[in-house]
Amino acid sequence: MDARIRRSDWRTSPEWHAYAYAFDVFRQKAAIVQSLSNAEDADRAVIDNAVLAMEAAREQYRRYRDALVVSMTERRLLDRPEDPEPTKEEIRQVASLLWQLEGKPEGRALEDWYWAEDILRRATAVAV
Known about the structure:
Blueprint: H1 3-6, H2 14-36, H3 44-73, H4 88-101, H5 109-127
């Protein structure tokens, strides 16, 4: 086991604090999106902004999480490239969320897919 992992003070490191803060921001943004699911007449622009903010916070959280792991293990993470394209599963999940937030309209699957791709790409750019 790496000696840095065994250190008892890793939760006081700057990487830990950045990670904890990023997680809290993501949690708050997710709560906002969740509250929109209860709104019957949520505006498309409001949905776009809320989901974009949540996805940007998720990307920022991932980056701080990875930095924390690197600081603890002194190893570079290989499973997430620096400029990742959204996966089909990520796009599907966001598209499904958008569909639900808009009241589950019929005939909008492709539009929601492209909207989800756009949000995920913008979120990655915002998080940089």
